[in-house]
Amino acid sequence: MNDEIDPALIAILTQLWRAAEESPARAWSLAKLSKQSGLPMSSLRRQITALSDTGLLDTTPSDAGVPAVALTDAGKDLCAQLFARGTEPGLGEP
Description:
By secondary structure, the protein is of the alpha+beta class. The chain contains 4 helices and 3 strands.
């Protein structure tokens, strides 16, 4: 069994966690999230769909019709668990 977490997923969660810490009342546009995570839009959209389907992410349309995303409470709880350890998730214990 592979316990590794997809690096693309980690990149997205890292940036969304940062966004939640820096500006908790604001969602990020997909363009900003793509740029900050270093992921192409096609990969980002696949991951966003999966995160939304699992209830970890809220997606809301903006005035321009482009979605913006933010972590749900469940997503924040997961990120707190993942990133509070001081080690990168998926890399195993030292």
